Amino acid sequence: MDLPFVLLNVFAREGDPFSGNPLAVFPDAGSLATERMQAIARQLNLSETTFVTRVEADDAEPGTPVVAEVRIFTPGYEMPFAGHPTLGTADVVAGLSGILGGPADEVVLRMPAGPIPVTREGDGWRLAARSGSSRAAGVDAVGLAGILGLGDAGGHVRVVEAGTAWVDVGVEQLLVQLDGVEAVRACRPDASAVERVLAPMTTEPHVYVWAWAGERSLEVRLFAALGGALDEDPATGSACANLGALLAEAGHRGVDLEVSQGAHVSRPSLLRLRIDDEGVVSVAGRVVRVGEGTLNLP
């Protein structure tokens, strides 16, 4: 069996095709069993790999969204939703030959977390986030500073509790506001401490640190701890959507924000976060195709 795939970088910065978060998309994966999808994702070893299992375009009218069913896998498990796989997969689905006679500008991706509308925007795509939920962090500021490796700077704790909470618009993450970008850059989390403290509270111990870098800009980092190891993500659309939900709840409306991530893993990324006047959150970014190939399976 020969399976074609597309390799993309999502949330890439202009002028740097090797920035952003890498993604592999298999556009014709309807015949694959779950176990085979997981094995392929493990083989490629990217942060996520997506599989398009069905595209509903036969009865679509021109100007209407193309609907596709999609599954997302990390090398270790399936995810109900993730941001950069959503944008990258939308780009591939929209460009499939034979759909409405040309590339589509609107796509709806059906995922385990629910349908996600995605719209073309310049050289990228914008996803509309679902409404979500939030809950208290369950760890005080001193405890959070400790697991993040920030310690106690002369009696000053760098965690801002007002901007710290668990948020879930598709994937739950612990958002931790810090008092400046210097604190974001200084984070040196202890993997075992992150897992020990957060794992009892959630299925995925992810912590997303953020701080204002300017009036309309933020700097963020996301850390995931599992099995005593710590991974840092280059660009996390789901966490950016969670951040939008948190900011909307705090009263931020009618704003467009630039969110920088990935510099610490040499994958500088730019996410465009929008909160409209009604508090609806969307996340956009550039999508760059960097290659295509075929996976040869027995």
UniProtKB/TrEMBL annotation:
<dbReference type="InterPro" id="IPR003719">
    <property type="entry name" value="Phenazine_PhzF-like"/>
</dbReference>
<dbReference type="GO" id="GO:0005737">
    <property type="term" value="C:cytoplasm"/>
</dbReference>
<protein>
    <submittedName>
        <fullName>PhzF family phenazine biosynthesis protein</fullName>
    </submittedName>
</protein>
<dbReference type="Pfam" id="PF02567">
    <property type="entry name" value="PhzC-PhzF"/>
</dbReference>
<dbReference type="GO" id="GO:0016853">
    <property type="term" value="F:isomerase activity"/>
</dbReference>
<feature type="active site">
    <location>
        <position position="48"/>
    </location>
</feature>
